[in-house]
Amino acid sequence: MAHQNPWPDEGNTGHIWDEDLRELDNPPPLWWMLSFYAGFIMIIFYTLYYPTIPLTNATGEFTKGMTGWTQVNEYHDDFKVLKDWRDSKFADKEEKLAAMSVTEILQDEELKSYAVATSKMLFGDYCAACHGAGGAGNPSFPVLADDDWLWGGSVAQIEASIKNGRIGNMPAKGMMGNLSDTEIDNVADYVIALSQGEGNDVAYSAGKAAYTKGMCLACHGPAGKPLAPVGAANLTDQIWRFSGNREEIRGVIANGVNVKKNGEYVAGTHQAVMPSFKERLPNADVNVKRLAVYVHALGGGQ
Ligand code: HEC
Ligand code: HEC
Questions:
Q1: Span 116-143, mean pLDDT?
Q2: Fold designation for 169-271
Q3: N or C, which end of the chain has less CB nearby within 10 Å?
């Protein structure tokens, strides 16, 4: 640094490096000063307008600003705009769903895909806990994504299942409760043979006789295939409502399904209750139909 200032009149600050490198004392450009002041004005504006200053008390209070703006309010406002737009865009489709029957909806390709597309969340929220994601089933809860139906696979029958719920009833030890332990064993073997297409083998004639004695055919049909959708399982296929091992099959025959005494389930009976959804679902008038069309489309709707 030089000790003498060789440029006394040029308005430098007297700081000089490397012989001639000087710090001058010029005012900043006007545009720069204006933005600088504008910045201050903005600080005052922001401080008053938005929630800004944390107040040093224990409750976490802060200044709320002139308009009460918060990010959450802004989110809710934007969300409402989106919802109103959606509601108006799909209002005609929702009205049609409300007015038409499920059978009619099924015949309208566009409406059908709309019902299916808008059902996924609903199914996840209200049905998947029991029936599995996409209706793939869970132990003791039927698969909905196949063409094996207890209560019928027409879209109207599916609608009735969802709306009113279903309770399959099977008495223990045959219709009259009069099968002996041996007969139960025999009929269990017969049922397993039926599922493998071997029910007519002589080896199973005792089981077949027990099937007749127990009047199993009243629900399961004369050959193990229900003649009407009364909630009884088809015994001629490999699809088991419960686990399908011999122990469990024998247990179903011995203890029945949903058998109650004095309002209580009897020990060992299989519980299988599909709850009614006409009061559980929001906007049930439309949503039961929507889900019926969805479930029908999942797999083997008839
Ligand atoms: C608490 C468990 C549970 C929930 C939740 C549930 N279900 Fe079910 N559902 C069942 C059971 C158990 C059955 C079988 C009833 C029987 O054995 O007769 C069933 C049967 C059905 C059937 C008849 C299947 C057939 O083979 O005929 C349909 C359709 C169905 N459910 C649809 C739904 C839909 C759609 C939802 C959601 C709105 C739903 N379920 C929610 C337990 C449930
Ligand atoms: C009143 C009607 C009814 C009668 C009679 C009846 N069942 Fe059932 N059966 C049902 C119903 C309902 C179910 C359970 C379906 C469900 O909830 O998934 C069932 C289920 C079964 C199952 C379990 C099937 C599976 O997929 O896991 C077997 C096995 C069975 N019945 C055998 C018999 C035999 C054998 C008899 C005669 C001794 C008989 N049933 C009599 C209605 C009946």
A1: 94
A2: Cytochrome Bc1 Complex; Chain D, domain 2 (1.10.760)
A3: N
